[in-house]
Amino acid sequence: MTETLRIEPATIAVILPLRTEVLRDGQPAESAQFLGDDDPTTLHLAAISDAKGCDAVVGCVTLMAMPMPEDPTWTHQLRGMAVADGFRNQGIGGRLLTALRDHAPDLKIWCNARVPAQRFYERHGWTAVGKPFEIKHHGPHIRMTRRLSA
Question: Are the beta carbons of 5 and 92 closer than 8 angstroms?
Fold first, then answer.
């Protein structure tokens, strides 16, 4: 049987377990839920694999209308990007970013990337803005931006 991976819109309920596991390890699920997750304009994408014979969410990303504090012309924030352990370094994160472009073209987006992920984002056309900063309980981050275009 050949493994397939599909990326599709999802609800917060579908992606929250993976987001909690990867980004908030050991913390309650509520810590991985963000203000705006339930907004009807928020886009959640799930990468779903059938590698183990049944569908499993192995990656996720969220895009929400949230202006960047320093420059509100960057209108949407990427949040909660996660890929399951055992599925990393297989191009899933890149496919999630590409899918964002397909679902939400022509937006100026920004994110608070974890510093170890900075090179990943740069390989996908993102630009670092400013200097690294600390997010309490979550470590060093850097603000990054990218214009999505179809």
Answer: yes
CB under 8 Å to 69, separation ≥6 — which residues?
none
Rounded Cα gap, residues 109 and 144, in angstroms = 9
First CA to last CA distance, the chain: 33
DSSP state letter for 54: S
Q: 96 is written with which tokens?
A: 């999630």
**d(C-alpha 126, C-alpha 120), whole Å:** 9
Closest CA to 142 of 150, 129, 94, 4: 129
CB 68 within 8 A of CB 143: yes
The 5-10 sheet, strands edge to edge: 5-10, 43-49, 56-65, 76-83, 108-114, 139-147, 127-135
pLDDT digits (tens, 9 = 90+) for 32-88: 999 999 999 999 999 999 876 778 999 999 999 999 999 999 999 999 999 999 999
144 contacts 121 by C-beta, under 8 angstroms? yes
Q: How many residues does the chain have?
A: 150
